[in-house]
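Sample intake sheet
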Amino acid sequence: MQISDVLTLDCTKSAVQCSSKKRALEIISQIAAEHSGQSSTELFECMLNREKMGSTGIGNGIAIPHARMFSCDQAIAVLLQCEEPIEFDAIDNKPVDLLFALLVPDAQCKEHLKTLSSMAERLNDKQTLKMLRKAKSDKELFDIMTN
């Protein structure tokens, strides 16, 4: 599955004002809820529960929060570029400014491990990261991530 199969332009947000990890997850939940018909509270709880198992902050200013959805059959990705980096309990203890969230239907978890892996790979590319951090609009962010 390609990133462009799960990420849409309206789920891509640049220069998001966000003060904490919790707030970032709330914003992601609200965006995903608008596109999935799920409850934003339910999505938030799922992501929060996943974070309790261990931070999804993978280092280098990046977090890949993810969770299972239980009454939806379509995976949804949300890309946030924070205006200011936030504390995220990342493995390198550095603040996070790029969050790429993936919410997947419970029945399709195994297939989406590949999507998570390709997202992490894409975000590990120094050139891509530099461009994502310099992006000035939702469209620019989206194009960088999906090309």
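Comment: Helices lie at 3-6, 21-36, 40-53, 109-124, 126-134, 138-146. Residues 21-36 form the longest helix (16 residues).
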